[in-house]
Design goal:
The protein is about 70% helix and about 0% strand. The protein is built from 4 helices and no strands. Helix 1 runs parallel beside helix 3 and helix 3 packs parallel to helix 4. It is rod-shaped and about 110 Å long. About 5% of the residues are buried.
Length: about 150
């Protein structure tokens, strides 16, 4: 028996039984790009007994199932990797948030101490008690520690 690539022939209408087998095989390959040469090979294979096409379709179906299973496994691994990364990022953000809150509390405490100092010295702390204290000390010749 000669192969599909042996002779370039004009396309002849296929017998109905071969056309049916080709339709079944092409259906199993739905979404797979097929060249003209590959289509000729598939048409040639469909000229054999029906069980030949059935076996090929079964192999194609199993190959697709294996490929899908591998993709699902890869997707699962990637999802788990991303979940771990997200968890690590969440933990880091929580640490940073706690540090920021701690520093804000510390800054509020220092601001409160500066306001108390201003009030004890009879100085209006205004919006910036540190600047008010420096201005007061500078006016007394004691604030020489800061320069612009």
């Amino acid at each position: 028996m000669s192969g599909p690539e042996d002779v370039e022939r004009p396309a002849e209408p296929l017998p109905p039984w071969q056309a049916d087998r080709l339709a079944i095989l092409l259906d199993a390959l739905a979404g797979v790009p097929i060249s003209d040469a590959e289509r000729r090979t598939l048409t040639w294979v469909c000229g054999f007994e029906a069980h030949t096409v059935e076996h090929l379709v079964a192999v194609i179906d199993r190959a697709q199932a294996v490929a899908m299973s591998k993709q699902v496994a890869r997707d699962h691994l990637e999802t788990e990797r991303l979940r771990r990364r997200l968890s690590e990022t969440d933990a880091l953000l929580a640490e940073y948030r706690d540090e920021v809150i701690s520093r804000h509390r510390e800054a509020d405490q220092h601001r409160g101490q500066l306001v108390d100092l201003c009030l004890r010295a009879g100085i209006d702390p205004g919006k910036d008690p540190a600047a008010a204290l420096l201005a007061h000390l500078g006016g007394r010749g004691l604030g020489g520690g800061r320069s612009s």
